[in-house]
Amino acid sequence: EIVLTQSPGTLSLSPGERATLSCRASQSVNSNFLAWYQHIPGQAPRLLIYGASSRATGIPDRFSGSGSGTDFTLTISRLEPEDFALYYCQQYGNSPIYTFGQGTKLEIK
Amino acid sequence: EVQLVESGGDLVKPGGSLRLACAASGFIFSNAWMSWVRQAPGKGLEWVGRIKSKANGETIDYAAPVKGRFTISRDDSRNTVYLQMNSLKTEDTGIYYCTTGWYFDLWGRGTLVTVSS
Prior knowledge:
The complex is a heterodimer of chains A (109) and B (117). Chain A has 109 residues and is mainly β. In chain A, 0% of the residues lie in helices and 49% in strands.
């Protein structure tokens, strides 16, 4: 089973700054089948990125994904107040088991 | 409107059973792969299990912590997927979400399951 490790655990930034979130896999993710989700407690999680770098429908272009193999990154180019939330990476390439990272909390500094 | 609505969450004693349902609308449910994902209090997201579409053999897979205790099924005539949970443990407490797809592009708002004596 692939283990995904996200860093940092908590990221404290101000609106307007750039956020860089990391997700490292214990083994190569098949075909870069890696997704990123945003979760605000009390709401449904939201898909941001799939296939490591493709933005989901309706996601602003300040969100971008990159990486391959075992190292992946979610970048938010300029933080808006509504971006402060929890972020999870997930691999869906090594079926049948899907795994999530433990999450990164993006908080206002 | 494209949406998923979970129901059935409740307070149940350890060793008890509960069945959750997830009603889908706004898309062709019979073509969709459906998963359940949960979040324990203070913890991250955890995949529980998935059922493929009939066209893909309705194959079902489970995460190790729930295998043998939980059963996923679907009723395409009702656009509904179910999660039957037996032999519940305190660590099964959490919000249970249903979601669609290979990567999870649509989510419900979740239903709360509390396992406590």
